[in-house]
Specification:
9 strands, alpha/beta, 4-stranded mixed beta sheet, Bifunctional carbon monoxide dehydrogenase/acetyl-coa synthase(codh/acs), Chain M, domain 3
C-alpha cells in the first residue's frame, strides 16, 4: 500500500517544521516487542483494564476537547522502513505539566508491514477504538478528531504521552501481527499546530474514503460516488488507489493459487 507513503514523509516534514519554529519536542525510542512495551508501563493495558468512566472531578488533564481542537488519523505502508519502529514524538507539554488543564491534541499513528494493504484498513481503524483497554485513560469520542481524559490516579502513577504511545503500540501490534514497525506522534503545543496537522488529515481522509469504497467494491459491493470522475480533482488519487488495490488483489490470488497447488 503505497498511497500513504507521501503523507508519512509529510509527517516527518511537519515535525521538522515544528522543531524549526522552536516548539518543545521530546523523542522517545521504546522497545519493539509487545511484551517489552507492556513491561515498562505504569498502568495496566488490555481488555477491562480501565474500570469505568472518568468523571470530570477525577480528571487530571483533558485532551482534545472540541473547544481547543483535536485531530487523529492513521497512516500505513507496505514499506516498514519508512516507519521508525518504537519512536514516540511529543510536541508540546506532556501530561505531568498540565494538571487541571484542557490541551489541544493531535495523534498520528504510523504503521509499516510488507503485508499491510487495503484489506487491513478497516481492522487497523477498528483497533484505534481502545475503549476500556488502558487504565486511567478514557476516549470520549474518536473519529477524525479525538477527545480523551487522563485520570488523576493514572497521572500519579506516572502515565504520560510516552505511556500512551507504548500502550497503543502494544494494542495495535497485538491486534494485527502484520504490523512490523509502528511510530506515534502526539501534538499538544497549540491549536494552530493542530490545524496544520488537520490539513494533512483532510487529504488523508479523501484517500481513506476511496480505499473503503474500492475495498468493498472488490468484495462485490459498489458504493457509488456522487462526483463526476472526469471533473473531480481527486481522480488521480482514486486511480492510484484502484491500481494499488488491484495489484495487491492479483498478488494475493496468485499466492492462494500457489498454496492450493
Amino acid at each position: 500500500m503505497t498511497v500513504f507513503d507521501a503523507y508519512i514523509l509529510k509527517i516527518a516534514e511537519y515535525v521538522e517544521d515544528m522543531r524549526a519554529q522552536g516548539r518543545r519536542i521530546a523523542v522517545f525510542n521504546v522497545p519493539a516487542s509487545v511484551k517489552q512495551l507492556k513491561e515498562g508501563l505504569p498502568v495496566r493495558v488490555g481488555p477491562n483494564a480501565n474500570p469505568g468512566i472518568i468523571l470530570r472531578e477525577d480528571t487530571y488533564v483533558e485532551l482534545g476537547n472540541p473547544e481547543v481542537g483535536s485531530c487523529a488519523f492513521i497512516l500505513f505502508t507496505d514499506k516498514p522502513e519508512l516507519v521508525n519502529d518504537g519512536r514516540i514524538t511529543v510536541i508540546g507539554p506532556d501530561i505531568k505539566d498540565s494538571d487541571n488543564k484542557s490541551l489541544p491534541f493531535g495523534q498520528v499513528l504510523l504503521m509499516g508491514g510488507t503485508e499491510l494493504g487495503g484489506r487491513e484498513h478497516e481492522e487497523l481503524k477498528y483497533l484505534g477504538f481502545v475503549g476500556d483497554q488502558i487504565e486511567g485513560y478514557m476516549v470520549r469520542s474518536y473519529t477524525r478528531s479525538i477527545w480523551s481524559r487522563v485520570s488523576k490516579d493514572a497521572a500519579a502513577k506516572g502515565f504520560c504521552l510516552e505511556s500512551l504511545g507504548r500502550a497503543l503500540m502494544s494494542i495495535y501490534k497485538s491486534g494485527n501481527t502484520k504490523i512490523e514497525s509502528m511510530e506515534a506522534l502526539f501534538v499538544t503545543s497549540g491549536r494552530g499546530d493542530i490545524k496544520e496537522l488537520d490539513d494533512i488529515a483532510t487529504q488523508v481522509q479523501k484517500i481513506t474514503r476511496e480505499i473503503v469504497r474500492e475495498t468493498w467494491k472488490i468484495r462485490g459491493y459498489d458504493i457509488d460516488c456522487a462526483n463526476d470522475c472526469s471533473s473531480c480533482s481527486d481522480k488521480p488519487v482514486c486511480d492510484d488507489i484502484r491500481e494499488v488495490l488491484r495489484a495487491k488483489e492479483k498478488n494475493e490470488q496468485k499466492g492462494e493459487e500457489s498454496y492450493n497447488v
